[in-house]
Amino acid sequence: MDQKKIDFRPGVVKDDSPLASEGTYSDSNWIRSRRGRPENVKGFAKYIPTQFTGKARGVKAWSTLDGVPWFAFGTSSKLYAVRDTALIDITPRRAEGSLDNPFKTTSGSPIVKVRHYGHGLKAGQSITFSNAMPSGGITINGAYTVTTVLSNDYYTITHSANASSTNDYPAPDPLDPPEDQVWPNYTPVSAGGRVDYVVPFVAGAENGSSSTPATTWDLDNIGEVLFANRTGDPIYMFQPAPNYNEILIDTGFTSIGSTGTTSWATGGTAWTSQSGGVARFVRVSGNNPSNLSQNIQGKCKPGYVYEFSVQVSTFTGPGEFDLRTSLKIRINAGDPVPSLIEVGSASLPITKAGTYSMLFVCPDNPIDIVITGRAGEDTTQVNLTAPSLKLLGRATYISQAPQTVDHMFASPHGDQPRVHRAVVVLPRCAGFWRGEHGMLPRLCL
Predict the structure, then answer these.
(1) 10-residue block means of pLDDT along the chain (445 residues)?
(2) Which of 109, 184, 328, 420 is deepest in the core (most CB within 10 A)?
(3) What are the residues facing 434 on neighbouring strands?
(4) 384, 426, 387, 391: which is closest to 405 by C-alpha?
(5) Residue 91 contacts by C-beta under 8 Å, 6 or more apart in sequence?
(6) Angle at the Cα of 182 from the Cα atoms of 178 and 183, rounded to 5 degrees
(7) The pairing of beta strand 423-427 with beta strand 407-411
């Protein structure tokens, strides 16, 4: 019998029917192609030894500007990034930041009206408030459920007790000149003052049903920055980096003195270093603001999101309504003449003891991170501990992007973000997004 050699083209063709793909392999199992011929797979090893949570639906591979490969994927409950073989949980909070005097109360009612611009929340969603001052005789801290959504900027929550007085949002006093109605001469707290908030990231549907589709993700990159959207959520961004280590060289306030001689610099005697890693601010004479700063030049990347945290352990001598003791976090930045720059909601005045964690976008030419203390009329003492400054190592939401997005992708066309129904198109060369954390970067390929 004559024998004829049959040559098959390498690879497996699944796009055509077996008849149409004559001369090729149409199916396979546990084989790989080697030198154009099939070979049994001789084994495998886990690329990522760590088990992740949920089912992955949405994946993206990209590289940093330095050529370091990353990939990311989303599940129903988490967002992950992978560098080398390290699995990194970069799950964002659905939203976070600080609000300025957001609470309006009515005497005898537990219903609180919340002013929260562009909140994107729905009735039944949870939000957690912290560091609030009393408003209408009640202090609104802890987890609350949105009762009613009134508009894009207002909603209501229900407190556990009735307010003892009616309280409205503070307004500038018409009897005072405008220059006296801004910080440091004007720090109202009657509607809660500075209130920090977090909207938690809630797990979606892992498998889905006829009424609830399974959770999916859209992932894309602009330059080295990853953008992510879980269906029905805001748009998140993640900034890859070799590490997310501490930036400050002194996280214990061990050295406070004149500029250039110590790690923390101050120009007067209002700030001093105390035992136990404490920085103390007191009223010396008058109530002019006094700065405490640490140099960050060359350590922070303009346009990227950083997290600054500090513990305010003692806060005495609050002062009166318009001459209130307060702290403010700012960045000394600019070229050729630097100036103190407020960085979004992170720069809202701090007027009480508590644990503060704030996000901000680093401005151009950063030189110092600055804590400004402003003393009231009374004897003042404010103690700070545990300062920390790090590049944010998880995804964070873009507050000025639409807060409910079904799909998102990056396009090489145009220079402005566009919204088509529930689809957001991010240009590959995007302008600045102005958000509550400051200015997001101009991102180009």
Answers:
(1) 74 80 82 81 81 91 94 95 94 95 97 94 96 95 98 96 94 60 82 96 84 88 92 93 95 85 86 94 82 95 95 80 81 94 95 95 96 84 96 92 84 61 55 44 37
(2) 328
(3) 439
(4) 426
(5) 77, 78, 79, 80, 201, 394, 395
(6) 155
(7) parallel
